[in-house]
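Discussion board: Methods & Data

I've been asked by a reviewer to show the raw model output for two of the constructs in my manuscript, not just the figures. I'm not sure how much to include, so I'm pasting the format here to get opinions. Each protein appears as its amino acid sequence followed by a line of discrete structure tokens. Is this the kind of thing reviewers expect to see in a supplement, or should I convert it first? Here is construct A:
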Amino acid sequence: MLAAVLEGVRRLELRDVPRPVPRRGQVLVQIKACGICQTDHSAYTGRRMNWQPPMIMGHEMAGVIAELGPEVEGWSVGDEVVISPVITCGKCRWCRLGMSNHCKNGIVLGGDGQEIVWDGAFAEYLAAPTEILYRKPEHVPFEAACLTEPLAGCYKGMIEYSQLRLGEDVVILGAGSMGLLLAQVAVAAGAGRTVVVDVVPSRLKKALELGVDHVINAREEDVRRRVYELLPEGPDLVFEAAGTLEAAQLTYNLTREATRVNMFGVIIPGEIEVSPMNIHWQETRMDASFSVTPRVMTKALDLIAKGRVHPERIVTHTFSLREIGEAMKAMESAERIKIVIRPDA
């Protein structure tokens, strides 16, 4: 089969590699769509180096079952599926507490977050155990279905961890793919007023198209002053989804009494200045969220199936697998939001 193999920093090579053979309890999935995550691009550029070459990346995936391995029940060739990238043991303390994304025996397919990494979906086929399969609703396009995993991460952070309540005012810093999925979750959950901050006009325009109430261009306005003009009583919840230390600092600068914050996007080393005294007197509460669990994968797929969230609306580019080099170049464009690879294109 054809696969894009990461051989080293900025060395993503198209290779003819052996097609996986599904083992006991596994199926072979023909990949129909796989999103490019920022963590994929960070591995490609060397921004993160917690990976070993050669590696097949790609963990936002959906496809069609092409072959059943031994002892597989309840699935058939031709079934359309969404695949979670996280395989867990189900036995350790974290799994039994419902926090399986922290599983100490965990495996990730083509991604980041667990020490053990198996090949991902920048390929024509992928072998996956049935416990990480979810049935794709027939009416949901593959471009939407493959984004179930990032949407699940956003649902987990916004609803399950930061506990957005009906009518609360939300500020989201960053209008990339995750920021715009967070915005869709906030709107669907009944946020009072939703404010999105970014520096790219086209992304801010997309945020308005997705139903947010206000946008702020951080290059043109003082963000804190403008936020408090729009929300005189201040935000109930501030989400950092830009992935920069500057955005993390701004997150705390926007708080008032009882504001909740979520450090969602920053996964790079560094520090910001935070006052423990202010946290104490304001009763600031901080959350963070990484990876997904079976529960939030199920919830995210429900949101897509019921038409409450439309991940395909943030897709700005699609490429074939043979064009993955061009796709990685497009990742560096300020205008792109979400890029999806279609291996069969």
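Construct B, same format:
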Amino acid sequence: MKKLILFFVSIILPILLVAGCNVLNPSNGSSNNLLKASYIQLGATGSLTEISASAIASLVVVIFAFGDITTESIDTSYLTWIQTFMDHGAADSVCFLSIGGEFVTPAQITAAGGVDAVVANLVAQITSYNSNLTSGSISGVDLDLENAVDATTINGLAQGFKAADLTVCIAPQVYLSSGTTIDPENPSNLVLTSGGALATTNSYGLAISNGYVDYIMVQTYNSGGFTVNGYAENNVEFVKSISEALNNAKSILSIPDETKIFVGTVANQCAGGQYNIFNPDLGWPFPVAYDQQSILDQLQIDILAMESDSTNYGNISGIMFWSLSNDYMPSGWGDTYAVEGGFSKTICGAAD
């Protein structure tokens, strides 16, 4: 994911938000069949004031980014914002506290004390956040590990959080173990990876096959160098094609029936790296002129087609995007072409 958090000068504005998170089996979130999920960048405080009530209401899964792996202490400024997002909450949504992002490395996990210490720190943070919230709660941890974190470490973290009675979400990158293309009908070379030196390795696979993972938020962007059914990551049709591949990879990747698979994209061009659906010409550096609405319109057509085709997409539970913060303040990340809230309005059905 594009995890470079920008710290804006926060102008506190009145905001009515409707999201609360306290149950593990959400049943709705939009008028469509595919559920909607998004990350919220708690460090990007200026963007938080811009997020609309209806945008939060359109989500079934909310992921707060990021928890600090080195301490049991909470960030009190984060608590304030989490409470704001919980206050008028929908009872059937689920919330996670994420760890990782583009900057957390295996060395940092070791320096924090290793797997057991990281688990203890996040369990303590979630317990503290929940004890201070007057409505809603954080139900689990999201493992957004992107810097070649190995399978044993990811498995240990997922196992530890499950043992602490927390729901476990992961955010792997999609890539391939060999070749340059993935056959969506027989995706035998598709892997869910933590990237870097392990890019061709199914580094999240052990935790998945062991049954420690409840939600998979698959990053289908930022990798580059391969195609699915002839489409690369900079083509809007890639989302539909990789969704078919993921649907058909359920047995190949030993994904349990109860594990929910969300296909992830970015909200706009500057919410991701060079390889994303809002950069059809692979321009760089950003921003590069593009028509966000036409891409969103095609994405919505493809999502509706997926929803009506249970044979090829029946194992896909929802659509994830990075991030609600980028979506409602694209200019904060330098995107001068995106409309504020464009993704939420077109794809999630937000009113404003």
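Answer (T.O., handling editor elsewhere):
This is acceptable in a supplement if you add a one-line summary per construct. For B, something like: The longest strand covers residues 94-101.
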